[in-house]
Amino acid sequence: MATKTALVTGASGFIGPHLVRVLHREGRRVRCLVRKTSQTASLVELGAELVTGDVTDARSLVSAVAGAHEVYHLAGVTKSFRPEGFQAVNETGTRNLAEACAAASTPPVLVHVSSLAAAGAAPAGRDRNESDPATPVSTYGRSKRAGELVAESLADRVPTTIVRPPIVFGEGDRDMLQMFVPIRWTGVHFVPSLATRYVSLVYAGDLAEGLLLAAERGTRVDKEGQSAGQGYYFIAFDDQPSYAELGRLCGVALGRRWTLAAPTPEIFSWGIAGMNELAARVRRKPGIVNFDKIREASAGSWICSVAKAREELGFIPGASLAERLEQTVRWWRAQRWL
Questions:
Q1: 74 CB contacts (<8 Å, ≥6 apart)?
Q2: Is 245 in contact with 321 (CB distance < 8 Å)?
Q3: Do 9 and 71 form a contact (C-beta atoms < 8 A)?
Q4: Which of 60, 127, 153, 277 would suit a FRET pair with 47, their CA atoms being 20 to 30 Å apart?
């Protein structure tokens, strides 16, 4: 059997190296779409072929897609001051890539990595599942949903599967690191609400395994909408800790004997977001703690069912949530990030 070629967009980001490693292990020839400014040392070490381009430049995608059997679309914007910043990559970039796949002599399988934010918070009293109507609450979530709709619109020409991960953490992640830093120094975890809310999470390496399973075993999106949720998957741990419980798990991963979870009124969280927004604009660099994220945190619990991924893909995380948090902390410390 001929070796499959896999194209990965957004490969130089946080999740990319995890996926490249899994694809190499499974015998794929890996091609990575990178920009001229991308940090590519880790990809070169993993033996990936680098192709210079950008999902916002449709012409650069033609040669990148040529000959690929699978395309994993990780490229996305998670922080932006303006809606147009999200749209340019999360919607228009997805269109450019899907159209390049459709134009290929043999369209590859497209695994589009979206987000739980595109689906929305969980309905009251239960997990969100793939057949629930999408109700995004943030600018980011709406841009990711727009990307999903673009992929759906071309699904009759490109075999497409869409994966919606929740909070992703692991080696290389700087966003969740910001939750650990105050716990390390103060032993206090600030919960952004007085209400008890729950979250789903996934380790980046486990997500990478799930993406490969989605390419190999997943159903494809039904453009005609005859089966709600067909071709969509949530990939996460079964564990769904509350924000307070998550803080205590982070404390354990750090080796702390105790961590104080401090619920705070939402108005306090909005105030912190406002100060961070102002500081970010002064630096001209968007931050992760912003109005958009507080809008999501205030919307309810962000938990998703993994039953479909387990049953159809055979997805099982390689270790427990607690073990993966400890593994991530060890890596951060080795890199002197923590």
A1: 8, 9, 10, 11, 13, 15, 16, 19, 113
A2: no
A3: yes
A4: 60
Level-2 CATH architecture, domain 5-170+200-239+302-318: 3-Layer(aba) Sandwich (3.40)
Number of neighbours of residue 213 by Cβ within 10 angstroms = 21
Distance CA 19, CA 30 (A): 10
Alpha carbons 252 and 113: distance in angstroms, whole number: 30
For CATH 3.40.50.720, the residue range(s) in the chain are 5-170+200-239+302-318
CA distance 243 to 137: 19
Structure tokens belonging to residue 16: 């990319």
Q: What is the pLDDT of residues 303-337, one digit of tens each?
A: 999 999 999 999 999 999 999 999 999 999 999 99
The owner of tokens 């057949």 is: 131
Mean pLDDT of 283-302: 83
Tokens of 41: 């040392």
